[in-house]
Amino acid sequence: MAEQYASFVVTNAGRDIIARIIAGLNITFSRIAIGDSYDYDTENFINKTSLNNEVKSLSISNMQISSSNVVELTAEFGKSDIEDAFWYREIGIYIIDPDDETNEILFAYGNRNDAAEYITPHIQNYAVLKNIKCFVSVGASANVNILISTSQTANTINFASADWILDEASDIYKLELGNILESLKVFKTTETGKIETSIVDITRDASNNTILKSLTAFDGCVVSI
Q1: Which of 32-41, 80-89, 170-179 bottoms out in mean pLDDT, i.e. has the lowest?
Q2: Domain range list for the chain
Q3: Is the pTM value of this prediction over 0.85?
Q4: Which of 98, 138, 144, 168 has the fewest C-beta atoms under 10 angstroms from its C-beta?
Q5: Rounded to whole angstroms, how far apart are CA atoms 20 and 24?
Q6: Alpha-carbon distance 86 to 2, whole Å?
Q7: Torsion angle, CA of 153/155/161/163, rounded to 10 degrees?
Q8: By percentage, how much of the chain surpasses pLDDT 90?
């Protein structure tokens, strides 16, 4: 985990699923949930079936294979995603129940307890963008999928090299995205997947048109909004 949790464990239900993955079962990670409740009984985390008090459900935006039996799951939430302030303590990773697609299983659980972070949408000029990365053992990562929702698909824009325009005066490539005010991430696309890059500068003109600038145009890129 990127955050410091008192404990972050695969639940008993999750461990049963790992055994079935090794036997060939395919599973789908459905979401990451966050909550605000304390729980100091860390030894009992493996018996959890839900968060104590779920505050927000997050779509999994990306999954990468970290090793032969570990996957990295990514989810994000920002100030605009929450209505009320809360203490960001609990986290849970859910999968679709392979025996009943209408249900889900809490695969892993963690709690920050006293190290919790106070998140509020009510303070002006106070920005929040949490990027949550979870590294989870799954036994056989080739059998693991993530659930992609319609909203997630709409938040990703693909661009080809032909979309980048060379400004001959500055020798910098530009890619205009229009009136986009959200946080942006740019990924270079490769044969093996997406690589996040920081070599692109993001600027906005007087009309709030967003422009990406780079010294070299990408063969292909993905912009996550």
Answers
A1: 170-179
A2: 7-150, 155-224
A3: no
A4: 168
A5: 6
A6: 20
A7: 120
A8: 19
